[in-house]
Design brief:
Strand order of the largest sheet: 2-1-5-3-4
Shape: elongated
Number of domains: 3
Helix content: 25-40%
Radius of gyration: 29 Å
Pathway: Carbohydrate metabolism; tricarboxylic acid cycle; fumarate from succinate (eukaryal route): step 1/1
CATH topology of the largest domain: Fumarate Reductase Iron-sulfur Protein, Chain B, domain 2
Pfam families: Fer2_3, Fer4_17
EC number: 1.3.5.1
Subcellular location: Mitochondrion inner membrane
Keywords: 2Fe-2S, 3Fe-4S, 4Fe-4S, Electron transport, Iron, Iron-sulfur, Metal-binding, Oxidoreductase, Transport, Tricarboxylic acid cycle
Bound molecules: iron/sulfur cluster, FE2/S2 (inorganic) cluster
Number of strands: 7
Number of helices: 12
């Protein structure tokens, strides 16, 4: 109950009993009518504010299921109500508040809170995103629904199994491969122009938002590396200091189910919280590969 209602009720009872409510409320101000009036207004204003603040409660419906107890429960959405007036602006802030105040069993990954580690990836109202970069939708008339990254095995609540995802990353050999020692014997140097070719690629935080939104990946998770791994493959193909560009491209294209499983649907680019374009990187690799192949072979792809 708000303090405004309490104050109102108290005054009513005081009047029935024939007492001056202002004096009852503020006995120390008995001989200061102006101060009593100010105090009364302050209480009512506070009550009004409290009433308005209550309208900022936002419902979050969060996916619950745990592999620890697979047969006990079916997956379900649990509602939590968060007071937005005392919460940070991002979805991760709301999750932190729920975990701290309402339900310590709520599980999700997070680390940096700055959009750098990529660990807080989840699905927010139908869009994959990292929760620390996603502003809360302040429309309190409808709930925000938070579920794990789609088409992944759930370990617990919002935590999914990324073992295969990291294995696919490993398969593109994401490290510098050279056949020659550095010219100065200390480090491999790169011109500013060559370094610029990595823009739009090196910023990837490997959050998996793109890969888990890709329908080609959903249907071929074992053969198709997915857009995140392919974006990194292109990052190393574009690397001027790397000596294995051709081999990298060949490894991606000798099996049709790798690079060419991409159907250019572009869900990946639409879901990247860092505004990168995995679809664009894949398209450039396809182009690079096609220009290196005889026309008969290209037409058969
Ligand atoms: S390309 Fe974007 S969505 Fe995909 S893993 Fe990298 S940062 Fe995440
Ligand atoms: S463009 Fe390619 S990688 Fe991106 S979502 Fe579509 S099929 Fe997947
Ligand atoms: S917590 Fe690191 S990206 Fe969100």
């Amino acid at each position: 109950m708000s303090s405004s209602l309490l104050s109102h009720g108290f005054n009513k009872v005081a009047r029935i009993l024939g007492r001056d409510p202002k004096k009852q409320n503020f006995p120390v101000l008995e001989d200061h009518p102006a101060a009593q009036a100010h105090a009364e207004v302050a209480i009512e204003t506070h009550g009004d504010i409290q009433n308005r603040v209550q309208k900022l409660y936002k419902e979050f419906r969060i996916f619950r299921w745990s592999a620890d107890h697979p047969t006990n429960n079916k997956p379900f959405l649990q509602s939590y109500y968060v007071d937005l007036s005392s919460c940070g602006a991002m979805v991760l802030d709301a999750l932190q508040k729920i975990k701290a105040k309402d339900d310590s069993s709520l599980s999700y990954r997070m680390s940096c809170r700055e959009g750098i580690c990529g660990s807080c990836a989840m699905n927010n109202d139908g869009t994959n995103t990292v929760a620390c970069l996603e502003p809360i939708n302040a429309d309190t008339s409808k709930p925000t629904v938070i579920t794990p990254l789609p088409h992944m095995y759930v370990i617990r609540y919002l935590v999914v199994d990324l073992t295969d995802y990291y294995q696919q990353y490993r398969s593109i050999e994401p490290w510098l491969k050279t056949e020659r020692p550095p010219e100065d014997g200390r480090e491999y140097r790169q011109s500013p122009a060559d370094r610029k070719k990595l823009d739009g690629l090196y910023e990837c935080i490997f959050c998996a938002c793109c890969t888990t939104s890709c329908t080609s990946y959903w249907w071929n998770p074992e053969e198709y590396p997915g857009p995140a791994a392919l974006l990194h493959a292109y990052r190393w193909i574009s690397e001027s200091r790397d000596d294995f560009t051709e081999e990298r491209l060949q490894a991606l294209t000798e099996d049709f189910k790798r690079l060419y499983r991409c159907r250019t649907i572009k869900n990946c680019t639409a879901n990247c919280p860092k505004n990168l374009s995995p679809a664009g990187a894949i398209h450039k690799m396809k182009t690079k590969h096609m220009f290196s192949e005889p026309m008969e072979k290209v037409e058969s792809l």
